[in-house]
Amino acid sequence: MRGRRARRVETSCQDRPPSAHGFPQASTAQPSGTMAPMSEHHHPLTPTELLSYMRAQPWAIEATVTPQGAPQAAVIGVAVTDRWELLFDTVSQSRKHQNLVKNPRVAFVIGWEHERTVQYEGIAEIPTEAELPDVQAYYFDRFPDGPTRQTWPGLVYWRVRPIWIRYSNFSVNPPVIQEWDAAAIAGWLK
Question: Is the pTM of the predicted complex or chain greater than 0.85?
Answer without folding.
Answer: no
